[in-house]
Amino acid sequence: RTSNDIVLPGALAEAYQLDGALGSGAFGTVWRATHIDSGELVAIKVIERTRQLVEDFRLELNEAEILKSLDHPNIVQLKELAADPSGDGCFLVMELVDGGHLQASLDEHGAYEDAHAAEIFRQVAEAVAYLHARNITHRDIKPENILFVRGAGLTVKLTDFGMSTMKDGKLTTLCGTPSYCAPELLLGDGYGKAVDMWSLGVLAFVLVCAALPFVSSTREGLFEKIKKGGYEFPSTKQVSTTAQDLITRLLKTNPMQRYSSREALQHPWLTGDDGLATTHN
Ligand code: ADP
Ligand code: MG
């Protein structure tokens, strides 16, 4: 796709100049753009929708108004939102966060050393705590949705937030990576904010191990493993006992026993006041 294929709706077309594609995922493509008057660089996510879903889509546009009011240093700021006049699409104008996503970094460099993993994890946990305090469940926490701020060290921002409300029960099969799905989501008898805490558990594991806790060659096999909740830390990696402790408290199959975002933020792995010697990689 080139930017010539995308037609911005009236008001956006006058205000922004599309520059090029930044990335794409299950729900559309994200473009780099420039606000013509201010010169500010932004990212515009184009969500394409099929006609059958237009009804639900209107409701989601209202939810997006709430997302616009979110303001947190570790959450990508949503600036503007516009519907395609044809009703088939939606355009989200966001702050540009162009230091690449965490998955790319993990693929390139492997696991993070303990302190760096904790620093990245803490910021995502802060973002999730902020969302949860506002009754928003992200539902798609994974390294591809965590972006580095260019030139700002390990500073990260969570993206793709709230739009995951589109990914309700009917649409879970569309999700690209089921590896981060909580067991209760797979069981299909209702779920809440705790699904994000499970995904954070998988994220913490991935940060320190550069491997997923639940792996199978088939989707069914993977779902079985997640529902059982059995996993092991790779013998080749020396994961600190503090990191292991937090991961264990997040990867609880029973959502009632799982740590909340507040509890996670108070854990010694993130506060550093452990009192005990910590093993580093
Ligand atoms: P999807 O729902 O399709 O997964 P995302 O919102 O995750 O869409 O965006 C897909 C990709 O686009 C991300 O993995 C990232 O590479 C890029 N991207 C998303 N938001 C931004 C942003 N605000 N700034 C820069 N790149 C972004
Ligand atoms: Mg995404």
TrEMBL record:
There is a cross-link at residue 142 (Glycyl lysine isopeptide (Lys-Gly) (interchain with G-Cter in SUMO2)). The active site is at residue 140. GO terms for molecular function: ATP binding; protein serine/threonine kinase activity. Keywords: ATP-binding, Ion transport, Kinase, Nucleotide-binding, Serine/threonine-protein kinase, Transferase, Transport. Residues 16-270 form the Protein kinase domain. ATP binds at residues 45, 144-145, 160. This is Protein kinase domain-containing protein.
